[in-house]
Amino acid sequence: MDLAYLWFFIVGFLFVGYFVLDGFDFGVGMSLPFLGKDDIGRRQIINTIGPVWDLNETWVIVAGACLFAAFPEWYATLFSGFYLALLLILLALIARGVSFEYRHQRDSLRWKRGFDTMIVVGSAVPALLWGVAVANIVQGVPIDVNHEFTGSLLTLLNPYGLLGGLTTLLLFFTHGVYFVALKTDGRVREDARRLAARAGLATIVVAAAFLVWTVFNALSAGAPLVGVVIALAAVAAVCLIASWLANARGVEGWAFGFGAATIVAAVLTLWFALFPNVMPSTTDPAYSLTIENASSTDYTLTIMSWAALIFLPLVLAYQAWTYWVFRKRVSRSRIERAAAAAAH
Questions:
Q1: What gap in Å lies between CA 106 and CA 147, rounded to an integer?
Q2: CA distance 36 to 82
Q3: Mean pLDDT (the chain, rounded)
Q4: What is the spatial distance between Cα 37 and Cα 146, in angstroms, rounded to a whole number?
Q5: Model confidence, pTM
Q6: Number of CB atoms found within 10 A of residue 167's CB
Q7: 294 in Cβ contact with 71 (< 8 Å)
Q8: For the chain, what are the domain ranges?
Q9: CATH tag for 3-343 (out of 3.30.70.660, 1.20.1630.10, 3.40.50.300, 3.30.470.10)
Q10: Residue 36: pLDDT band by 50, 70, 90 thresholds?
């Protein structure tokens, strides 16, 4: 396989990992107003992702760095054209990260509620805008002969893009609530299971509409891998329904696992629908960025391939070890005892 094509799928793998891992982070953050009935409950929810949220976010940094090195033309067009959307995502992530670190610095209820609001907003904005951005990349955007984006932020807010954003918002929210149910006990756990049942139904409806639209677009565009796109969309739909059924039966691990599989299959559906383009042009198909005309030299890709072969397994092993260390449920009683000890 040509190295450019290999790196197209490696970048796809990195974004899959990011959406799966930071996806449930976003969902946990968005669930605070619905599940956190008191400060102990909100701390219980936040502590489920406390040891891993920053590690999860590194995936998007690595994905962006690989995109820059492997596909500089794609990176330049994407980050210049989607500048405002990506800036909003960045600001939201900064606000969310600051909130995790500073929320516990004072006992003031007003102080904590302010940072809780920042966590919710800082989780919802990226969850929405990532979907809008990826949907527009797949659908195509106005690009001129110089491979420059000629639209604006409003160009991205088209029906398909907004449906993509709503899909990721609901998908990440449900995925995060599954994680809360998996990692907590007591009232928060039971409330999370009930909330996931309601949110899951809305997610199934919206995600089904988005997947059908994506398959229709792939068929209309004559995508070379349309058969794979249809198969992956079907897998995503089956996994999403399976996650909802597993939650209804109280099998939280399976619900979360099927939720993760849904995101994997959904992102791969979009990735294969995009192939062999990396950024189609709606101005003129001849102006589209493809894997071949947007990639770096073979020498650069060769060096990157050796680096990925050496370091990627180490990173994956370290992340797996981190999740294993923090695999136990976050107990409400333990937080209450810690709060009582701090009060004295």
A1: 50
A2: 35
A3: 92
A4: 54
A5: 0.94
A6: 25
A7: yes
A8: 3-343
A9: 1.20.1630.10
A10: confident
